[in-house]
Structures are given as structure tokens and as C-alpha cells.
Amino acid sequence: MEKLDKKTVIFNQDAFTVLPKIKSDSIDLIVTDPPYFLSNDGITCKSGKVSSVNKGDWDKAKIPVETFYFEFLKESKRILKPNGSIWVFGTMHNIYYIGYLMNKLKFKILNNITWQKTNPAPNLSCRMFTHSTETILWAKKSSKSKHYFNYELMKELNNGKQMKDVRTTSTVSKKEKRFGYHPTQKPISIIERIVLASSAENDLVLDCFMGSGTTLEACIKLDRRAIGIEKEKEFYDIAKNRLIFTINNKYN
Hints:
29% of the residues lie in helices and 25% in strands. By secondary structure, the chain is α/β, with parallel strands linked by helices.
């Protein structure tokens, strides 16, 4: 465990080692992007060139995929406060598992947000439509939870109109990758909107698959307390350097 400042703690450990140690009913908000388990020796397009779809051993399932997601969601439900909520990123390859398991564990799904990418990678097979979206499921802990939603701010950010469940942006900019490359990094604008919408200042936010640290960077900028967990040392170091840079620029 490393404490980067008074509000930010990160772990270079497996999520399933750290999660059981987190106190029940202690987390206000979970924002995370779990492995999609797409590393199946196929091909994709990267920077205009044919590339392997394999992302690394971390994206290969060591246990049944359903079991992985079930255990992650079960622990998430335990540690969320009674009025807490969770946002989980996914694609067609895994989001239906996650939605089904959320219902099985008696979460209450509030929205499925569609993130539309303006610059998706082309489909090399030319036998289907180009994959240009990801889904983000937003759920509260139970049907009785009185979840936080900053409706007025979201309306203000949307020129006085109710905000819809579609976000259209480009993929991650080069500036956001200055500390290193992560294959599934999300734009900070997406994460900042989520954190603003569903948490208040000083709330405790968890990202148990921290990756390059985007969720925690948003929390630092927006004055939330945050816990990040990342198993892979390479990505942990990217996130740590990125977060220290963010903290230094905020307070100096």
C-alpha cells in the first residue's frame, strides 16, 4: 500500500486480495473497468496496422469468466455503503454477463450509458459493422438505495437540458498517455463526468482495476478520496507516476 496524499491510496496487489480487507459499507462509489478477457490470439487494428488482439496475461481468464465477475460484484456489493453506487465499463463481449450478475446479486441498474467513439479502430474482417461503442452500467446497491445523483450539475453541463445516456468523444489523447501505454485506457473526460454525477466532495471512491489511474486522477482533481488497486506492476507504475504528477500540479 502507498499513500500518495491525504486522500489517495494505491495498492500493487490482486483485487481479490485487497477487496476482502475493505470494511463493509464503507465505499461511496465504485468506478472500474475490469478485464474483458479478449486476448484470444485474434487480430485488431492499432495505429493503422494489423496487430495482435492479445493484451497480456492479465486479460486471459485463469478462472471461469462468470466466476471472476460474480466474485468482483459480490465484494463490491458488500463494501458499498447502503446508498452507494457502481459504474462498470464493458463491451458486448462481457457486459451481458455483468448485467445478468448485477440483477442476480440484487443491484438496481439505473442506466446503461453508451460511450460512442468518434475515432474507433476499423473492422479488419469487413464481415460486420465497426465496433465503435462501449457500455457503462450504472447501478445502485439495492432497489431501496437512495443513490447520489447531481442532476442539476449534469443539466447545467448540458446547456440546461436533461443529460442523455450517450457520450460521444474520441479515444484517449496522447497527452493522457504521457506516462505510458495502457491498452484499455479511458478518456478522463468520461470518468470526470461519472465522478461528478454520482459522488460529492470527500466521498470515498474505489477503482479495483486501476489500470493507468484515470479514475484516481479524476478524484484528485475533483477533491474525492480514492483507493486504487492494480495487480500489474507495469501499469501500477504508470498510474503512480501519473497521480504524483497530478497531485504536484494541484498543490504546487
